[in-house]
Design goal:
Elements lengths: L2 H22 L3 H21 L3 H25 L4 H6 L1 H23 L18 H9 L4 H22 L11 H5 L3 H4 L18
Helix pairs in contact: 1-2, 2-3, 2-5
C-alpha cells in the first residue's frame, strides 16, 4: 500500500470518528471542536484528491464561520464568564488532541515528499485547479449543480416563510399597508392660536 492510500484511510478514520463525536457529545464545546476537526480532515482528503481550491474554501469558510458563529452565540447568550473559566482545563485535553491531529494531517498531506515518501505527480505550470473545477461543474455536472442551486433556493424561501409566519404574540410590519398610506390619511393639521405668557406686574 502506497503512502497516499495510508494517509487517505487515516484521514477517513478520523473523519468518521469526529463526525460521530459531533452528534454524540453532550458538551457543545466538544461538539464544536469535533466539527472543526471533521472539516479540517475533509480538507486534507480534498488535498489528496488535488482539489486544493475546495480544501482552502472549506477551511476558510466553514471552519472560520463555525468558530466565529460559536463565539458569537456564546456572547449573545450572556453566559457567566467565571463559570466558563472553571471548565477551561477540562476542555484542554480534547482541544490539544484536536490540534495535534490537525498538525499531523497537514504534515502527512503536505510534507510527504520531505520525508522521502512518494509524492503525487507534478502538474504543469499553467495548471489551474479552480479552472478545472469550473469546467467540470458546468459541463459534466451542470444539471446536478443547477438542481443543488434550486434546492438551496427553496430552502431559503422556506426558512423565510417559517420565520414570517403570523403570530399574535409578536408585532408584524406589513410593507404593502405602509406603502399605501398617504399624508392626508396619517397627518392631521391643527390650527392653534399663539399663546402669550401672562406678564405679572412685579416683573414689569
Amino acid at each position: 500500500m502506497d503512502f497516499p492510500s495510508i494517509v487517505f484511510y487515516f484521514l477517513s478514520a478520523i473523519l468518521l470518528l469526529s463526525g460521530l463525536r459531533v452528534v454524540t457529545a453532550k458538551n457543545p464545546v466538544h461538539a464544536a471542536l469535533a466539527l472543526v476537526l471533521a472539516f479540517f480532515t475533509a480538507a486534507g482528503i480534498w488535498i489528496l484528491l488535488e482539489a486544493e481550491f475546495l480544501a482552502i474554501t472549506l477551511v476558510l469558510v466553514y471552519v472560520g464561520a463555525v468558530m466565529v458563529l460559536f463565539i458569537f452565540v456564546v456572547m449573545m447568550l450572556d453566559i457567566n464568564i467565571e463559570e466558563m473559566r472553571k471548565g477551561f482545563w477540562s476542555h484542554l485535553p480534547l482541544a490539544g488532541l484536536v490540534a495535534g491531529l490537525m498538525v499531523a494531517e497537514m504534515v502527512m498531506v503536505l510534507g510527504g515528499d520531505r520525508f522521502g515518501l512518494t509524492a503525487p505527480a507534478a502538474k504543469a505550470a499553467d495548471y489551474s485547479n479552480t479552472k478545472e473545477l469550473g469546467l467540470l461543474l458546468y459541463t459534466d455536472y451542470v444539471y446536478a449543480f443547477e438542481l443543488a442551486a434550486v434546492i438551496l433556493l427553496v430552502a431559503i424561501v422556506a426558512a423565510i416563510a417559517l420565520t414570517l409566519r403570523r403570530k399574535h404574540s409578536r408585532k408584524i410590519v406589513d410593507p404593502g399597508w405602509q406603502s399605501r398610506q398617504t399624508a392626508t390619511g396619517r397627518i392631521r393639521m391643527v390650527n392653534m392660536k399663539p399663546q402669550h405668557p401672562e406678564v405679572k406686574e412685579d416683573d414689569a
